[in-house]
Q: What sequence folds into this?
């Protein structure tokens, strides 16, 4: 399998509970390398643009409010099949359905405050990475 890059976000519920290091340890333990990382506070406009594909979903407004409620850590992960590998280690969207050992099973508070975001395809990974990072900030 090819070496890929994917976008990861540690969400406000994770930064609020000081879980950045523990979640990064799980990602690194899964063979993913953090090749770019920064902490920032999303504006409403930025969160709306990032989640544009979900605009018609019933939870869109709540999701934007949650994602702007505190700092996030955005990161680029690199590794063999990184998109799928990260989705695997994140676990299911709803932590009640997430497998033991996954980040969401271990740390998530709810289906909304589920600690991490990960790109769901190579195409979305490319779009999401360029949303946050110029190429010069990604150091493999
Ligand atoms: P993901 O790819 O596993 O993150 O899931 P989705 O792309 O379907 O949803 C994006 C994000 O919206 C999730 O990670 C949650 O933070 C939030 N979300 C998803 N489903 C629900 C829901 O039913 N209610 C609420 N409040 N938020 C949700």
A:
């Amino acid at each position: 399998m090819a070496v890929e890059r994917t976008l990861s976000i540690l969400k406000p519920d994770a930064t609020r509970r000081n879980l950045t290091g523990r979640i990064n340890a799980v990602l690194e333990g899964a063979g993913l390398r953090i090749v770019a990382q920064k902490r920032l506070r999303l504006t409403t406009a930025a969160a709306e643009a990032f989640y544009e594909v979900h605009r018609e979903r019933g939870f869109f407004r709540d999701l934007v409010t949650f994602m702007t409620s505190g700092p996030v850590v955005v990161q680029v992960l690199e590794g063999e099949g990184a998109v799928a590998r990260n989705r695997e280690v994140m676990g299911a969207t709803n932590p009640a359905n997430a497998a033991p050992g996954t980040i969401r099973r271990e740390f998530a508070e709810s289906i909304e405050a589920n600690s991490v975001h990960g790109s769901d395809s190579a195409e979305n990974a490319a779009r999401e990475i360029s949303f946050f990072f110029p190429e010069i900030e990604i150091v493999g």
